[in-house]
Amino acid sequence: MKAVTFRNKTWDVAANLHLPEGFDEAKTYPAVVVAHPISSCKEQTAGIYAARLAELGYVALAFDASTQGASGGPGRYLEDPATRVEDFRCAADYLVTLPFVDENRIGVLGICGGGGYAVNAAMTERRFKAVATVVGANYGRLCREGDLTPGAAIRALEAISAQRSIEARGGETAITTFIPQSPEQLAATGITEIDVVEAVDYYTTPRGQQPGSPNRLNVVSTGAAFTWDAFHLAETLLTQPLQIIVGGGQVGAFGSYRDGFELFNKAASQVKNILVVPGATHYDLYDKPDCVDQAVARLKDFFGAAL
Fold first, then answer.
1. How far apart are CA 132 and CA 157, in angstroms?
2. pLDDT at site 148
3. What phi and psi, each to the nearest 5 degrees, are found at residue 289?
4. Phi then psi for 186, rounded to 5 degrees?
5. Which of 105, 135, 163, 246 has its CA 20 to 30 A from that of 277?
6. Cα 10 from Cα 116, distance rounded (Å)
7. Per-residue pLDDT tens for 252-301?
8. 155 CB contacts (<8 Å, ≥6 apart)?
9. Which secondary-structure segment (H or E) carries 122?
10. Cα 270 from Cα 164, distance rounded (Å)
11. Cα Rg, the chain, nearest whole Å
């Protein structure tokens, strides 16, 4: 593995390039762009899957989203779909400049929110010849549903608009957190929903904790996602081979199980498959070895045939 950067507009996007064992620059290899979940970074689950793909003979590029992790960009901790999707196109730009990458054999893999972004990017970025998601989630849907109470989206948008006015007048930028910042904070909230509980365990304990994933979100940046749908026009534009992987254990509020089947039914892809990993929760597929092994076994077959 080596640290690299590529450009998105005027800033550098930080990435790790995972290389196959016995890598030879004189040869050409298939490649896969690997996208991390929302609130995550390239050293977490995206790095796990990138390393496993490299073991299978792929050049795998795991990157930090613009404004997040070690990447630059216009501000910090933005979760703006347009910028996130552009990161993928720029990653493809970077890969086609590498003489050891076969530009006709580039795929994309996204995990959780990164899966939704990967799908959306692949509709217009035709250099991606195959698309895979692991517990892929539609960030726009998550924003619109909010806390699942009536009017949640409108209340959120009213608050975001009010915060824009504060910042336009010189007020402090609003930065919030995605989840409670520790297991102790989680216990104090009384929240027992499986995806939130496991997110806290993954992101705020040694299990998955990383400096590039500080649990920070620019509040105003979320406004753009409410009218965005990761799967919009998939029935027309998503024609590449598609592999969806979801957990078949307890289904959580983040909705990746539901999103996986929605995408499977909607995508125009003539070659598409959905794998339900028995007993696996959303976060089991981030790093639990037995669950990751099952996902990687399917990705091996899928990318092996599609690329």
1. 32
2. 81
3. -55, -45
4. -60, -45
5. 105
6. 25
7. 999 999 999 999 999 999 999 999 999 999 999 999 999 999 999 999 99
8. 146
9. helix 113-124
10. 44
11. 19
